[in-house]
Amino acid sequence: MRMVDLIEKKRDGKELTKEEIDFMIKGYTDGTIPDYQMSAFAMAVFFNGMTPDEIANLTMAMVESGDQVDLSAIEGIKVDKHSTGGVGDTTTLVLAPLVASLGVPVAKMSGRGLGHTGGTLDKLESIPGFHIEISEQEFFDLVNKNKVAVIGQTGNLTPADKKLYGLRDVTATVNSIPLIASSIMSKKIAAGADAIVLDVKVGSGAFMKDLDSARKLAKTMVEIGNNVNRKTMAVISNMDQPLGYAVGNALEVKEAIDTLKGQGPEDLYDLCLTLGSQMVVLANKAKTIDEARQMLEESIRSGKALEKFKTFVAAQGGDSSVIDDPSKLPSAKFTFEVPAKEDGYVSKIVAESIGTAAMLLGAGRATKESTIDLSVGLVLRKKIGDKVEKGESLVTIHSNTESVDEIVNRIYHAYTISKEFVKPATLIYDEIT
Ligand code: URA
Ligand code: CA
């Protein structure tokens, strides 16, 4: 078999066989197929797309390019949740203890963040003492005992995807639905999930800028999962503005604690209940979505979910007293308000600009090598649809330096205030099964 023939076949809109896709991904992973041939192939896919069989075969070839996590030592159906990326997305911190409190095993393997804020690991490390350096055996034991644990990424998962994603990034081929879908799903499948709940974001702060593309991406990922025997569903949610109010690591931990107490931002709470009910049903812990939702609401009301968060934190060395007293979390030296320059209604908040402003404060990594400051970030005071009066604060900046002019400029740039009444943003557009 020759790679040039496979490129030609895809260029001419024909379908590749499983053997051909396996040959290509193996060769690309071991270096016998060079980057330039793989780039030409990615561009051919960008223009001609792939059939459902090709997408499933590409996904599994990438899964098989490296290690696969075996979670069979953990009892029950392991449901993983994945978000296609957003700003201030604190759902994992809420969902992990929340669904675990109903007996759904949450075996979370998590990475560090790149970009606007840290990943789930970074956020959890803002709890004093919390650590993720546990052995695999300890991880399995903790999930069996408490139903929830988090471990740092181990092993060499989906090296083909790592290489291909890097190549796509510099060849203008990231934005292809078959390539995004297979990239995300290969990582979830290699991480050992039995079932997957996807949160596909749409809007200014997301990969998918319009609802049609988001629906198409969601359908493609659900189809991959179902094709390879992983029950999969997707929720399509709004990312026209950051989720919740907090953007920043310790600030988001506090927001997650508030939400588990039933006192969090409405949009974060709603999205967690929507995603959580799907997870509970996929794990066979409830028969219907309505039943699952009621169980989750009850777990928050009764304090069971919050209790589960304490158990989880303490089991990994963390100081669980921060959950009753979040003032023990790292906090920044200074806070500054950003006053509105006019009266009106917030009509737009460019999520990406808010994310970048938080990163510049030190809440995120500009490159893999950057260190992050867990205490800094932004807390939005006004969201889309809110009425504002001139001089009222739009955002509180939590900073460890006094020079925040550039941050302030970016925040003004992110907000649009309109004179006319603006409806609050729709949060959940669709569910795809
Ligand atoms: N996230 C991924 O992991 N892969 C893509 O291709 C796009 C977003
Ligand atoms: Ca948030």
Taking strands numbered 1, 2, ... along the chain, how are they ordered across the largest sheet?
1-4-5-13
Could you tell me how far the N terminus lies from the C terminus, measured between alpha carbons in angstroms?
38 Å
Low-confidence runs of at least 5 consecutive residues: none
Summed up, the domain count is: 3
Organism: Thermaerobacillus caldiproteolyticus
Subunit structure: Homodimer.
Domain Pyrimidine nucleoside phosphorylase C-terminal: 345-418
Enzyme class: transferase
Note the topology.
Blueprint: H1 3-11, H2 18-30, H3 35-48, H4 52-63, E1 79-83, H5 91-100, E2 106-110, H6 120-124, H7 136-146, E3 148-152, H8 159-169, H9 177-190, E4 195-202, H10 211-227, E5 231-238, E6 246-247, H11 249-260, H12 266-282, H13 289-302, H14 304-315, E7 334-339, E8 344-349, H15 351-361, E9 377-380, E10 387-388, E11 393-399, H16 405-414, E12 415-418, E13 428-432
Parallel strand pairs: 1-4, 2-3, 4-5
Antiparallel strand pairs: 5-13, 6-9, 7-11, 8-10, 8-12, 9-11
Helix pairs in contact: 1-3, 2-4, 4-9, 4-10, 5-11, 5-12, 5-14, 9-10, 12-13, 15-16
Residues 88, 90, 243-244, 246-247, 252, 255 line the site of calcium ion.
Function: Catalyzes phosphorolysis of the pyrimidine nucleosides uridine, thymidine and 2'-deoxyuridine with the formation of the corresponding pyrimidine base and ribose-1-phosphate.
GO molecular function: 1,4-alpha-oligoglucan phosphorylase activity; metal ion binding; thymidine phosphorylase activity
Keywords: Glycosyltransferase, Metal-binding, Potassium, Transferase
